[in-house]
Predict the 3D structure of the following.
Amino acid sequence: MTKKILTEHINVPGIETFDVYRQQGGYTAVEKALKTMTPDEIVEEVKKAGVRGRGGAGFPMGMKWSFLAKPEGVPRYLVCNADESEPGTFKDHYLMKHIPHLLIEGMIVSSFALGANKSFIYVRGELMYVIRILEKAIAEAKAKGFLGKNILGSGYDLELVVQPGGGAYICGEETALLESLEGKRGNPRNKPPFPAVKGLYQCPTVVNNVESIATTSWIINNGGDAYAAIGIGRSTGTKLISASGHMRKPGVYEIELGLPVEDFIYADEWCGGIRPGHKFKALVAGGSSVPILPANLALTLANGEKRLMSYESLSDGGFATGTMLGSGGFILFDETSCIVKNTWNFSRFYHHESCGQCSPCREGTGWMEKVLHRIEHGHGHQHDIDLLVDVSKKIEGNTICPLGDAAAWPVASAIRHFRDEFQWHIDHPTEATQPGAVYRGEMALV
Amino acid sequence: MEDTKPQLLTVTIDGIAVEVEPGTTILQAARKIGPDVAPPAMCYYQPLKGSGGKCRACLVRVAAGSTKDPRPMPKLVASCLTAVQDGMVVENTTNPQVVDARNGIVEFLLLNHPLDCPVCDQAGECDLQNFAFDHGKATTRYEEDRRTFEKKDIGPYIQLHMTRCILCYRCVYTADQITEKRVHGVLGRGDASEIGTYIEKAIDNDFSGNVIDVCPVGALTDKTYRFKNRVWFTKPVDAHRDCPTCSGKVTLWYRGDEVIRVTARKNEWNEVTEFICNTCRFETKKTSDWVIEGPTKVSRSSVISANKYRADLEKPSFGKRLAAAEYKPIHDERDTSQLSIQQLPPERFAKTLPSAVEPEP
């Protein structure tokens, strides 16, 4: 059994209520933080823990906190990004649904550390029932004196607001989220200025993922060093992985970072292997926007070592042979899945979700989707593959926010590793468009 | 208290150093050097606060961040929003990566553009046309249908052609910043976004006409000027009048002795210097209403200055550039001495060829 930090008590009946959560040792971090620690000490502990942002980019959370500008007389805000909409990622949803008080406890501690007196949880609009769960939990915490004015007699006030999201993937990008929270159209802002300087209502703001914030209470209780001892290298702590696809046991798993990918897929404790009678073909390791990897590269690095579930190991080899941990949306494909169709599906999603603000993303995502649609439906041309590579290159890095990159990477990587399959679709349109037809040529199946 | 002036920063753009005040953007610094170095701007509009960063046409590479931190920036940056640092080294058209990105942007902008320049009132003074001329290709790799929109009527003065729009948001900022209430905005998302008034409202206020001037393409055009003439056949003349609502300083566009259009005055970057009201723009179209100041100086090499009447203006370089691109020296190795052709002296040819065509070194 690996160490469990977030999901330790998740199976306790009634954990969503305040009393049961309190019995399991909940809200001790709030007591400890507010009574015995200063905000700077908390930031220091989080820095020591080395916890990296769990939303996808993997930016060290403590460093993000220390960048927060602290001008006199200007309010500061903490915003929790619970707009989890990445295809293949469903960990925050799971955490908030089952153990809402963990997030609220983390919010109180984090807000205290940052000096925020009003904090927001921006929850994906489609998850209305989760919003109700959170609101109920907030009301309970408030009734017990853990929220509101003068929390536990420490003189610290905090108001926690749950905001239903605007129903767009782009609102999960931190600056678009802030725009949406302000009541505007969810268009990402140009950076700089970064939210740490000018965020919500032009005030200094920190935006953190649900999972990142939820870890803070454990860090306060056990110390940053204890957290840093878990994991491997600069990937400290545990990570929730949303496992889906052609595996025996899909679901949300909390793993210690540094676990070999092979163990995660095949061990009974986690995914339990590929579904019986099938072979492992490809893996999307961190949500739909990270590069897809073929089975052999997913399990081993280019130099033959085992690939581990960590920020460094997964991105080893750059985009030529690596991918990213991203948000932990672990999607596994067996040999019955068609990579072209899958890439088209991802591309269709990004086309639909592009905000339309900057030209490369607005026009490019639609173009890639149309070309992929054409290849998938047997109307591809010989030059289409090179066209796709070229278009993806022209989008990547040239957009305001990372959605452009997120749209370009899956396409570029699918062509990089599965070019033969695309070629087969173009060369054999009649065969390829048969129902259930999949490329059976040479490829690395494990 | 002698030295109250802020210290000037030195920035090098395409190998040309320029001194600018702190807070200046790369684009403004480049504009200070001159139009040959200035990156194109399709959405950035200096008079409008907050504009820019959307079209990505002005992307440049920062080869060195500053004297203190000479690391290059990892990605191309939007020059219209990035402030210069002392000792910054910027590569604009000298960097193939930038040129490549810019070619890509033209291609993206033209993907869904109808290319109806022959019937578009903006042709000749269109930013996209100029941009495409500089960085575009004559062919397209796009094979699908271009997107279309339902036609919307936004009032008696302004014609909206959504298919031509490049979503620069300039008209949105204009309405936000110079009118009291904005009634139009961007609806929808992705490539289905469109400029529109929610529930078919007419844009009706004293300064609404300015959206026509700020529009870089022919998406918003003047209904009172629609299909009347091509801009290069008209003569721009500066004029003013005593207007109770605006500065009254305008440019009149003449066809013969008839005023067929009134616009605000624009500077050399095609930016309006002073916004004008609808009365001046749409309703005062008699020469007798105006005090004429003289011919407008069209300082950018545009087709508007192609015709006529000012000998000192440099003719637009489009023709020359095209000729230079098309011109190929004929390597005729035949022995012409045997033919009974009278050899003309080379000066005869030199006159007829444009001077821009210089022999390759």
Q: What stands out?
A: The CA atoms of residues 244 and 350 of chain B lie 57 Å apart. Residues 96-111 of chain B form the longest helix (16 residues). The two ends of chain B are 56 Å apart (CA to CA). The interface with chain A takes residues 52-57, 59, 75-76, 78, 81, 100-101, 104-105, 107-109, 111-112, 141-144, 166-167, 169, 185-186, 188-193 of chain B (CB under 8 Å).
